[in-house]
Amino acid sequence: GFLVASAFRVCFRLGLAFKARFSPKQKVIVRRDRSLGGKEVIVGTTRDHHHPRTNSSALDNPLSLSATPPNLANKTHYPRLHVRHELPKWWPQQLPQRNTASVFDSEYYQTKANRLIKAIIDNRLGGKDFSEEDIIQLRQICRASGVRVSIDTTNTRDSLYRAAVELVLNVCCRASINSTNVQIDGEDAREFLAGLAENIGLDNIRASRMVSAGVAARTRFCFLQAWAFEMQSKHTEAVSELSKICLIHGIFPPGKSSPEMEMVARGLEKILKVEQRELLMATVVGYCNCSEEIRTSAAEALGLVC
After folding, report:
1. What gap in Å lies between CA 261 and CA 271, rounded to an integer?
2. pLDDT reported for residue 208
3. What are phi and psi of 187, to 5 degrees?
4. Do 43 and 49 touch, CB atoms closer than 8 A?
5. Rounded CA gap, 26 and 23, in Å?
6. Would you say 14 and 1 are in contact if contact means Cβ atoms under 8 Å apart?
7. CA distance 209 to 251
8. Tell me: the pLDDT tens digits for 245-301?
9. How far is Cα 192 from Cα 29, in angstroms, rounded to an integer?
10. Nearest 5°: phi and psi at 272?
11. Residue 56's CB: how many other CB atoms inside 10 A?
12. First to last CA, the chain
């Protein structure tokens, strides 16, 4: 009985060894995790090179793209968006020159601007939104003296500028329909945003992209709001919303085939049917007194341009 049991164990071990020799070998992928004090953790496995897979470089991870068939993983319904690296045409080439303050006045304005930006950031850290009055006052001080302010974190600086973009777009939406020169505190809206970007140390290219993103978001919102009014048979209110789009596109023209308007079109195509978007476009053409360029950008935002 003992000999039979021993022989059985030997055969069983030989079987395991034979299976391991000819089955795919897995190697453990180990990485050091700094959050765990440099301890090594297993992040995945790879198979032996004698047993290649469809994507031999991928980890055995359920989140790995290799689990998806190649024809689905690389499939896209839209062409790749091209990121612009130049300023849009509406961006001011040069800001109006201001009288240079004396050394004494410059120090006074710099101190005043620093105190204001500190108060703005403190309020933000306290959970309060950026105040429109504070943004206008900051631009007022910097415009009059030529001083600049420094903001420690990129996120805070960008958030402040996005709030300024929203401020300008709100003022544009409150302006009369045929306005072409909307002003913020006596300054052209485009010069206000370009000047503020310079005052807070924000790169012009990055600033212009934030403005374009803000215009795209407002365009999408106004189109959806207009359709909501149409569903309620409030045609006058719908026309008012569409007029806001024409006004904003007249001041900050997106440009032909802009990636921002393409993104708006992608979103609206998932919400509104073709005939619904065509109705909105017909309203723009029929009731909004706007240029051909603005009509084209509106059509692009609605995904009606081939």
Report:
1. 16
2. 96
3. -120, 140
4. no
5. 9
6. no
7. 15
8. 999 999 999 988 999 999 999 999 999 999 999 999 999 999 888 899 999 999 999
9. 54
10. -110, 140
11. 12
12. 85
CB 230 within 8 A of CB 242: no
| Contact assessment for residue 259 and residue 214, using Cβ atoms and an 8 Å cutoff | no
DSSP 228-288: HHHHTT-HHHHHHHHHHHHHHHHHS---TT-HHHHHHHHHHHTTS-HHHHHHHHHHHHHH-
E strand segments, 34-108:
39-47
Give the C-alpha separation, 77 to 245, whole Å: 27
Beta strand pairing status for 183-184 and 39-47?
Answer: unpaired
Q: How far is CA 259 from CA 6, 46, 199, in A?
A: 74, 40, 28
Q: Which residue has the tokens 């600086």?
A: 157
Q: How far is CA 143 from the centre of its chain?
A: 28
Tokens (6 digits) for 194: 């370009």
Look up residue 50 and give its two tokens.
Answer: 């004698």
Which pLDDT score, from 0 to 100, does residue 57 have? 41
Q: Are 164 and 196 in contact (CB under 8 A)?
A: yes
- Quickly tell me which residue has 């105040």 as its tokens: 131
pLDDT for 236: 95
- Are 162 and 210 contacting, i.e. CB atoms less than 8 angstroms apart? yes
Beta-carbon contacts of residue 77 (< 8 Å; ≥ 6 apart) = none
Query: Which pair of tokens denotes residue 218?
Result: 């407002």
Give whole-number Cα distances, 209 to 22, 83, 144, 163, in Å. 57, 10, 26, 14
Show the low-confidence residues of the chain (pLDDT under 50).
34-37, 41-43, 48-78, 81
The pLDDT, as a whole number, for residue 24 is 56
pLDDT for the residue numbered 96: 77
Q: Where are the domains of the chain?
A: 101-202, 215-306
Q: What is the largest CA-CA distance in the chain?
A: 108
The whole-angstrom separation of Cα 76 and Cα 69 is: 14
Q: Can you give the pLDDT at residue 28?
A: 52
Instruction: Please give the structure tokens belonging to residue 126.
Output: 């306290």
Do 249 and 297 contact (CB within 8 A), yes or no?
A: yes
